[in-house]
């Protein structure tokens, strides 16, 4: 028979504070369970008023919920889509489960899957992810389910690489970096026929239906970086003379038609994101005023969030890359169109992301490479900003075992 002997309420309170203080801090005073560690307060430091009368401190903007249609994100942190070139026949694998699952486990509000081709010939490489057939639904659904277990949301970016599609092999060296390919290795593009355009729109719709079957909470149409939609938008690459070229209305017709049909196929309660290159960074190319004009049309077509990126259209682009360098694009679209935007590009610090949101320059903040360096970036950002964000219970549980052993060693808990 087991009996537990207590040393009394006062000693138990003392025991709780001393044991918490004894836990090794994590970098800069972060306790193991993800909150800010501090010295046990003395009697003089205790609040004079009852805890129930103290107004709650609002969370930092980065950790405030964001609701769009029927989806509420637990915070404003988005994992930017990043191609891993690790798929076979478009199928996601265990690599993707660990890769994407770690971001949900780390506390991201929305995990955007890498660009997934709507047709096999629309891949950047043969190792790209795809959503052109039903067999690709299951592997994606498995990862979506894991993300949902950690209270994060999942978004699928659907894409067609257009003139950037390649048939060459892109291998991985031991260091894990894709083999560098020259810019002139792209195939000579041919002008799409009207039937091919309609088939492509249909492929985007079919991919959208599969994304819903896989359980995704949102879908993003990839219209940036010189891929198919972006190359239609830009006068640098669109030299068509029919109703899909020439004027602004002609060049943006494909984008508008895809967004319209995807929105019609996507459940009403689920949000639709559109990623755009807001400028080509080349004189005479696609620019911010045209982006604002297009976004007004996309808003009328019931797009919900504009993911504001740039470039990728021409090797002549001149980009002054630096911290938050694309934030002014998201800011301008948000103000001019009155539509939620997502800022992306060289955002790596918690205070930097918080400043973007505090000053209402964007509604969401997308993090890319920083997540590769630190999958637990949201938890560390919460520590830096003084927010409550908890580590996965599997990481917290060992602490309680340690605490129990510690108490036994001090004879506060005995068995006899």
Automatic annotation (TrEMBL):
Coiled coil: none
Cofactor annotation: FMN
Positions with biased composition (Pro residues): 53-62
NADH:flavin oxidoreductase/NADH oxidase N-terminal domain ranges (all copies): 62-384
Keyword Cytoplasm tagged: no
Molecular function as annotated in GO: FMN binding; NADP binding; NADPH dehydrogenase activity
Membrane spanning stretches: 395-415
Keywords: Flavoprotein, FMN, Membrane, NADP, Oxidoreductase, Transmembrane, Transmembrane helix
CDD domains from the UniProt entry: OYE_YqiM_FMN
Stretches the record annotates as Disordered: 31-62
Record-linked SUPFAM superfamilies: FMN-linked oxidoreductases
Name of the molecule in the record: NADH:flavin oxidoreductase/NADH oxidase
């Amino acid at each position: 028979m087991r009996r537990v002997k207590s040393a009394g309420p006062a000693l138990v309170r003392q025991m709780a504070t001393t044991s918490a203080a004894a836990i090794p801090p994590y970098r800069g005073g972060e306790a193991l369970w993800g909150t800010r560690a501090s010295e046990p307060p003395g009697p003089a430091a205790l609040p004079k008023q009852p805890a129930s009368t103290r107004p709650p401190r609002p969370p930092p903007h980065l950790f405030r919920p964001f609701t769009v249609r029927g989806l509420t994100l637990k915070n404003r942190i988005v994992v930017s889509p990043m191609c891993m070139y690790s798929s076979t026949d478009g199928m996601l694998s265990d690599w993707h489960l660990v890769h994407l699952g770690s971001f949900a486990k780390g506390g991201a509000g929305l995990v955007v899957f890498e660009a997934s081709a709507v047709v096999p010939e629309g891949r950047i490489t043969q190792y790209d992810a795809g959503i052109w057939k039903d067999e690709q639904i299951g592997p994606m659904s498995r990862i979506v389910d894991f993300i949902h277990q950690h209270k994060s949301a999942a978004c699928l970016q659907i894409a067609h690489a257009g003139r950037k599609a390649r048939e060459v092999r892109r291998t991985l060296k031991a260091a894990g970096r894709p083999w560098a390919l020259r810019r002139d290795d792209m195939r000579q593009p041919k002008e799409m026929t009207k039937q091919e355009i309609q088939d492509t729109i249909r492929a985007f719709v079919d991919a959208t239906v599969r994304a819903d079957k896989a359980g995704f909470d949102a879908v993003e149409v990839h219209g940036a970086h010189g891929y198919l939609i972006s190359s239609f938008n830009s006068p640098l690459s669109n030299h068509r003379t029919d109703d899909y070229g020439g004027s602004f209305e002609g060049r943006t017709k494909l984008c508008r038609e895809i967004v319209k049909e995807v929105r019609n196929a996507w459940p009403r309660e689920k949000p639709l994101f559109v990623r755009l290159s807001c400028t080509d960074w080349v004189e005479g190319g696609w620019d911010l005023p045209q982006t604002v004009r297009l976004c007004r049309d996309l808003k009328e077509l019931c797009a919900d969030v504009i993911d504001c990126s740039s470039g990728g259209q021409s090797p002549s682009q001149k980009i002054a890359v630096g911290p938050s360098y694309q934030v002014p694009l998201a800011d301008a679209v948000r103000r001019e169109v009155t539509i939620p935007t997502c800022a992306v590009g060289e955002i790596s610090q918690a205070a930097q992301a918080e400043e973007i949101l505090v000053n209402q320059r964007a509604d969401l903040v997308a993090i890319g490479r920083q997540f590769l360096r630190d999958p637990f970036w949201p938890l560390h950002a919460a520590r830096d900003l003084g927010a409550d964000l908890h580590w996965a219970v599997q990481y917290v549980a060992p602490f309680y075992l340690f605490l129990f052993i510690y108490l036994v060693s001090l004879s506060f808990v005995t068995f006899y």
